[in-house]
Design a protein that fits this description.
The structure is a homodimer.
Chain A lengths: L9 H18 L3 E4 L2 H8 L14 E5 L5 E5 L3 H5 L5 E5 L9 H11 L5 E4 L11 H11 L3 E4 L1 H8 L4 H19 L1 H4 L6 H14 L4 E11 L18 E11 L2 E2 L2 E7 L4 H20 L6 H14 L3 E2 L5 E3 L6 E4 L13 E4 L2 E5 L2 E4 L2 E6 L2 E4 L10 E2 L1
Parallel strand pairs in A: 1-5, 3-4, 5-6, 10-19
Antiparallel strand pairs in A: 1-2, 2-3, 7-8, 8-9, 8-10, 11-15, 12-13, 12-14, 14-17, 15-16, 17-18
Helix pairs in contact in A: 1-6, 4-5, 7-9, 10-11
Chain lengths: ~375, ~375
């Protein structure tokens, strides 16, 4: 076994596996079957952009005791072999007749007794990254072994980050901090928004991002209408509010926060919106403690906005963060997930300035025993102006 | 209805829907349920990097006749409304109690008769992008309507690209061509590979990529060992062969090809490998015709390599290309998909130079009635050297 994987010492992965296996025992699962990039990376350290190709499924089976088993396309054997995984079973994928199904079935039936349960994340914010028809074959062929829902088992472990993980996210945040600081050098009046998006991605790479999995934003007079669209070629104009939001990646870990800028002089509506967002975020930074729920945090942020006379925007006001751009929980009034020490979260309040004009503000934090600590550098308290 | 969507004229989408509905009729499907970024973009023009967040499912239902219906999180309503879709049904996602399930069930039961069939892509190279537990609820609640496999229905339509789509892929290829031409300016001996990966992504953005969904590669003395790993910090050294591979995105369409470079003077093994790969690619470019199968193309490429005295590498030797980095078919001896006029493919032969040292060569083509036409600028016939 190699001394260390590509990203973390082996001890980090042993600890993750031990925590997952404790959860599996408590929840009555004899193995976990993991199929997504984040779950596979979490257990094995296997990090590659090759997931961008939908052609091949990848499987990791974690038995109730012992080490994880990788059941993967042969093209990944070399990289997986440089992780801490020693039991690597491969097939030549894609195979239209048997694309890993029999190898996965053999692995599961070898590791799990006939009356056992195989856990798969199948709840909110999950999906199974393999063909449905092949999954049906696996279910039939491993019977009478049962498939059970392992969403909570995996989420309760993954949501509490280790010190090493928090360090990676802090580094990703620092990369974005430095790139945001450079925005005034390229987001000048007259510059088309699509070029600003490119400039921003370039700045993130220059500041150390391995790659930029997410950039979004918006720009419009006194506020923007939408935060998920690709950029148009419309030039920035004085009076616009520009927002840029990024999920830049460092060693497989994401940041996710945004910054707002006035192009030229900010109008009163934009200034007040930014001040309300800043104050609501401050309220959450001050009040947040482990043991509160995501719904509690939603209430703090909403009340903070209302106290400033602002109209809260639609949708969630934050979420988990780590191995993907967004993780559970969702900061809504319906999510009663308990916030625990070691969780990394975004605080993402939004306000409606006028119909079709909004502003969204986002910071990244880690929750310690004594409260929230910022991972992103705090946004300026007044809306910065680009002249 | 808007005059045009964000990317294509509405006529483009009408034609896609008509072709899908003809396939659905032939295959006995009363609706298609689509959940992935590529399938949703194909039918609606809805393009966003927001898919990077796994938090929310998105649904498009295409009935046997009439227009597509979007069943989506409220956060996407504005952008979907600027596409050509007029029937947009939203819910506040993520909702831990009912995350779009009842809205999707209502939509399907309203559009499909009780004895009808709902098609879902569930075969090779597909997955269902929604929680498994919610899918099980949908299946139960729409019964007695049946779920059937729509993999072929969707693939036979999507795999034949329109002139407008080919134009987008050609533009993406041109962006990468220009970025590859600049590699000798930054991939100098002594430059760490991870910095070269960043430089290359910056060059792609500067040359016009909207974003860079994929960069991979490798570098090693006389060849590289692996083509899917993240870059290490090892500096390039004279005698290395460097390969860079990219899927850069323009208006939602990908290129996917690579280029090889000798750092310093190329050794004989690397030169011969490159010459063999070039010759095998030439053989395929000359011989390929509509009506051949993916397996035929695999044979042509393999025989081309063997004729040059090279040892073919493992794995597939090309694949489809378009709305994702890789699409079906796979150029293997097991894939008997018929290659048709309008298909966009990669030719990706690889050779084993020595144990742990390989070289892979890739071009992008479109298949016309009279044969293959390059979309990427042809690689130089001799391995370029960077001094």
């Amino acid at each position: 076994m190699p001394e260390r994987s590509l990203i973390f010492p082996v001890a980090e992965f042993r600890q993750r596996v031990a925590r997952l296996q404790a959860g599996m025992q408590a929840d009555g699962q004899d193995a976990l079957l993991l199929t997504t990039p984040a779950d596979v990376f979490y257990v094995t350290g296997f990090l590659t952009r090759f997931w961008e190709s939908p052609a091949r499924p990848w499987f990791v089976v974690l038995p109730a005791t012992g080490l994880p088993v990788a059941v993967i396309p042969a093209i990944g054997a070399d990289l997986m072999g440089r992780c801490w995984v020693t039991d690597i079973r491969t097939w030549d994928a894609p195979d239209p007749v048997d694309d890993g199904v029999s190898l996965l079935v053999d692995t599961l039936t070898g590791l799990v007794g006939a009356t056992g349960a195989v856990g798969i994340p199948m709840g909110l914010e999950t999906h199974l990254r393999m063909p449905m028809a092949d999954f049906a074959k696996v279910v039939a062929q491993i019977a009478p072994r049962r498939i059970v829902d392992a969403t909570a088992t995996v989420q309760r472990v993954r949501e509490v980050k280790s010190a090493a993980e928090i360090g990676k996210i802090r580094t990703a945040c620092g990369i974005a901090d430095r790139a945001f600081a450079r925005v005034p050098t390229f987001a000048q009046p007259g510059r088309p928004l699509d070029m600003v998006f490119r400039d921003f991605q370039i700045a993130l790479l220059q500041e150390g991002a391995d790659w930029v999995s997410y950039v979004a934003g918006g720009a419009g007079p006194g506020g923007y209408g939408d935060v998920i669209s690709p950029a148009s070629a419309r030039p920035l104009a004085r009076g616009d509010v520009l927002m840029l939001d990024t999920g830049a990646v460092h060693d497989g870990y994401f940041c996710d926060f945004d910054r707002n800028y006035a192009i030229g002089t900010a109008d009163d509506g934009a200034r007040r919106a930014h001040a309300a967002l800043y104050a609501a975020t401050d309220a959450a930074l001050t009040a947040l403690r482990p043991g509160m729920t995501a719904a509690d945090l939603h209430r703090i942020l909403t009340q903070g906005l209302v106290a400033e006379g602002a109209v809260p925007g639609q949708g969630r006001l934050g979420h988990g963060l780590g191995l993907t751009l967004t993780e559970w929980p969702s900061v809504t009034d319906k999510d009663h997930t308990i916030l625990r020490e070691g969780m990394v979260l975004t605080l993402e309040p939004g306000v409606q300035i006028a119909p079709g004009r909004m502003m969204v503000h986002e910071e990244n934090i880690v929750l310690h025993a004594d409260g929230a600590a910022l991972l992103s550098a705090r946004a300026p308290c007044t809306l910065p102006e680009i002249h």
